[in-house]
Write a structure and sequence with these properties.
By secondary structure, the protein is of the alpha+beta class. The chain folds into 2 domains: 1-112 and 308-341, no CATH class; 119-304, no CATH class. The chain contains 3 helices and 18 strands. The protein has helices at 3-16, 22-77, 79-83, and strands at residues 91-98, 101-112, 119-126, 131-140, 144-147, 156-161, 164-170, 187-190, 215-217, 232-236, 244-253, 255-258, 267-277, 282-293, 303-304, 309-317, 320-329, 332-340.
């Protein structure tokens, strides 16, 4: 006899008024109740625990989301926060209290994408067959070093061309670099991203026998002509295959290091863009932009002239970890990915 049949039988006994059956019926109901109460209480306890766990995880996720937004705000509005990330130490870690929880935050600069620290507004049509030249000169307070042609120091220029952006990376000769080289004029810039990690010495032949990596550029009177090689560095693009309208804001991202700048003095270097006609050996100036260094700004590291780039942000609290990848550039921030773990 199953449980349902037993209950139906008991109910019929009550209806027929059979004497002496009340006590066994009550005992049977107590047994049946005892069999169902324990699982019911367990189910209720499990449900309550699941609810509390869900609420706890939800609070962790909300706290993590808030932490990601906190890091994004710092990227957008705290230049010194970005400056703390260097190629040698690209990660900044800190913690904040959100919803009475300690949230650990890590922000890592993955790569540079250009930015608005060294920019130039241009409106120019490149002639088919001609090359674009970029030239760097120092015109105030001694000299600087430049780093380029490595994965870590992927110096480049970003050019607006209609609906697309052209990125030219700065290279040494040979490229990829394999050892120290002499200083050289008319280096190449193209759309191939650097593939090596070692930064070599690119001015091995100069009189001062500077052993440090990168390319040293000494102070000059500025300008474009009459300079010795030690007073400038220039790069040229491949010939343009067709007439190309460059219109908008060009962004130059150079990795620079202090050398001769005094700590309490200001300094500056200038970047020129020119169109080069190889057939005639003539130039047409497109524009120029200065990068100013305030006294006390320098520290002994390689520093990008543009803070914008791609960043990975992580937020960890309890058992929840949130990871977001964002791109910061030209005054906006765009979320590329968002992952809960």
């Amino acid at each position: 006899m199953n449980t349902v049949t037993a209950i139906k039988t008991i109910c019929r006994k009550f209806k027929t008024g059979e004497k002496g059956f009340a006590l066994p019926s009550v005992l049977i109901l107590l047994v049946l109740g005892g069999l169902t109460v324990a699982p019911l209480m367990t189910q209720m306890n499990t449900g309550l625990y699941s609810t509390l766990l869900h609420e706890d995880r939800t609070i962790e996720q909300y706290s993590g989301d808030s932490a990601i937004n906190h890091a994004v705000w710092r990227l957008l509005y705290e230049p010194e926060f970005i400056m703390a990330m260097t190629p040698l130490e690209p990660t900044v870690e800190y913690s904040i209290d959100i919803n009475n929880r300690d949230v650990q935050i890590g922000v890592t600069r993955i790569s540079g994408l250009g930015g608005d620290s060294l920019t130039m507004d241009i409106d120019y049509i490149m002639t088919a067959g001609n090359q674009l030249e970029l030239r760097v000169v120092v015109f105030d307070d001694d000299h600087v070093h430049l780093a380029y042609d490595t994965e870590t120091y992927d110096s480049r220029i970003m050019l607006p061309a209609g609906s697309e952006t052209i990125s030219f990376y700065f290279h040494n000769n040979p490229t990829p670099p394999v050892s120290d080289t002499n200083a050289q004029a008319d280096l190449t810039m193209d759309e191939t991203r650097p593939t090596v990690s070692t930064l070599y010495n690119y001015d091995f032949n100069f009189d001062w026998s500077d052993p440090r990596p990168g390319r040293r550029v000494e102070e000059s009177e500025g300008g474009l002509t009459g300079l010795e090689l030690k007073e400038y560095q220039n790069w040229r693009s491949p010939p343009f295959s067709s007439a190309t309208h460059l219109q908008g804001t060009a962004v130059i991202n150079l990795y620079i290091a202090p050398d001769g700048f005094n700590y309490d003095n200001d300094g500056a270097f200038r970047v020129y863009l020119r169109e080069y006609n190889q057939a005639g050996g003539t130039y047409t100036e497109i524009g120029s932009a200065d990068y100013a260094i305030e006294g006390g700004h320098w520290v002994d590291i390689w520093t990008p002239t543009a803070g914008e780039g791609k960043y990975r942000i992580t937020a960890s609290t309890g058992d929840t970890r949130i990871e977001s990848t964002v791109a910061l550039g030209f005054g906006y921030l765009r979320t590329l990915s968002f992952l809960y773990r």
